[in-house]
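Annex B. Sample input.
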Amino acid sequence: MQYATPPGSDPEQFQRPSSRSGQRELLDGLKQGVLLGLAILALTLPPPYPYRGAVLPEPAAGVALPGPATGVALPGPATGVALPGPATGAAQTQQAPRFANFLGEEASAEVRHIANWVVDSGDNSQLFFVIIDKKNTRVFVFDSSGNLRGATPVLIGSAIGDEAVAGIGRRPIAEVQPHERTTSAGRFMGESGRNASGEDVVWVDYDAAVSMHRVRTVEPSQRRLERLASPTTEDNRISYGCINMPVEFFDNVLKPAFNASYGVVYVLPEVKSVAEVFTSAYDVAAKHGVTPTIEHPNPARGIGMLNS
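Annex B, continued. Sample output.
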């Protein structure tokens, strides 16, 4: 069957598309074919790695998983090659032990234990420090390096105990009961100050109104000076909790130690153990594996340095 050619038209142009239009249609067809092929390939091929959360199939029974070939040694250090470590002969720095210097003064084992620990550990923060031995009713004053400045008998609280009654420092002294008149044990930051009577003192436990001060003789019947001079310790318990000491010792030894700054006061317990109260204290000689040095008396300690 033949179609009539419209008048004025080109028969070739009517029967087939132009060459430019044909090229475009050919490219579009190729693109669609490529995309269709990629889609089919993606559906048929397995993914290169399992999807997150996918359960991997377990190997069949009796099938061995692949591993290193038999007899193949895993890589390791070469024979005779030493692993890196500290250099041979490297010196280990260790602090030399430090002990308090009592200058030949007699002191209990507990006093020496605490004094040596303070010096070796630096617990006094480079301040003067004081140790009060309640069991033997004595006080020891050291400079910041642990050299003894003086020691003397003292008077302490009449009641035996290491704890202060709560709120006792805010009560009038007349209301303090005999069993409450204790001298608190522990570590305190001492400082100079004045009490309610305007007397200069060194505060030990400010909240409990416990201080170190000159011996008071306002009550002759208490015979405080005689108690200080006696060789026994039982009669040195007479105060409401404060530490009384000879006037000369307070003025010449204790007060100068606290004039410029604070100081640390260690009050040893009499009911509890030293380890209970001073949990960080340690035996210096045992820690460093040494023997404590032998002290020699210093004959030039001067006024106020000898026992009162």
